[in-house]
Amino acid sequence: GAVVSQHPSWVICKSGTSVKIECRSLDFQATTMFWYRQFPKQSLMLMATSNEGSKATYEQGVEKDKFLINHASLTLSTLTVTSAHPEDSSFYICSAGQQGANTEAFFGQGTRLTVV
Amino acid sequence: GNSVTQMEGPVTLSEEAFLTINCTYTATGYPSLFWYVQYPGEGLQLLLKATKADDKGSNKGFEATYRKETTSFHLEKGSVQVSDSAVYFCALNWSSNTGKLIFGQGTTLQVKP
Questions:
Q1: Which among A7, A53, A55, A64 is positioned nearest to A30, based on CA atoms?
Q2: Of A53, B19, B86, B104, which is the most exposed, with the fewest CB atoms less than 10 Å away?
Q3: How many CA atoms lie within 13 A of A30 on its CB side?
Q4: Residues B12-34, mean pLDDT to the nearest whole number
């Protein structure tokens, strides 16, 4: 299947700083990318949907000013956690897909963010 | 609204035991159904999927059948191995915008030698 690469795989940052996470589709063009957040021992919660060249659509309860999403090309989307706090510590996973019914979305390996 | 409910874990089995992880869903329309597996420290991998009623998805000895009448998509494997130890997520996609998935809470499977 297609490959989605997420970077970094883990990051530790200080409170108040910003962290950028990249999600790349390596061998296909991703018209849509999705960002999920996973708390320990819990399921994945969709944070936002990003379409190339347009503003991201955020799920209810997700602060768009805190979680900045950019999808500048068909192979790259970034998630920036601004002014990070310890409660933002989590596992963030992206997925990438192509428009069309019932086709598979491919997941990155995830980024473990720890804010100290 | 749309939702997915999985059986609570952890599920602990001995090697070669039979596995069932229950999954039921609530959705409008006709969603596609998926099982994903997450190994420790890794992202999600698609295990199998079914796109319409009565479809059976299968992969690596795992199977699940899309049952519209019972709104279920239970995961089964006849003989588990230690290497199957992971977290399993049931998910649905109700829109043509693939990748926008609703996940169940995940079920941890531990297989002991």
A1: A53
A2: A53
A3: 32
A4: 94
Q: Of B90, B81, B89, give the one whose Cα is nearest residue B110.
A: B81
Q: Is the pLDDT of residue A88 over 90?
A: yes
**Is a pLDDT exceeding 60 seen at residue A98?**
yes
Is residue B25 within 8 Å of residue B82, measured between CB atoms? no
Exposed/middle/buried for residue B14 (C-beta within 10 Å: 0-12, 13-18, 19+): exposed
The Cα B113–Cα B50 span in angstroms is 31
Q: How far apart are CA A26 and CA A49, in angstroms?
A: 19
* pLDDT for the residue numbered B36: 94
Task: Spell out where chain B has E strands.
Answer: 3-6, 11-14, 19-21, 23-26, 32-38, 44-50, 56-59, 62-65, 75-77, 86-93, 102-103, 107-112
B99 and A105 within 8 Å at the Cβ level: the answer is yes
pLDDT (mean) for A56-72: 93
Do B100 and A34 lie within an 8 Å CB cutoff? yes
Q: Residue holding tokens 């070669």?
A: B16
For A16-43, the pLDDT digits (tens) are 999 999 999 998 888 889 999 988 777 8
| Tokens 């992202």, residue located | B43
Contact B100 A99 (CB under 8 A): no
Instruction: Please compute the mean of the pLDDT values over residues B95-106 and round it to a whole number.
Output: 78
> Any idea what DSSP says for residue A104?
P
For residue B104, list chain A residues with Cβ-Cβ distance below 8 A. 43
pLDDT for residue B99 is more than 80: no
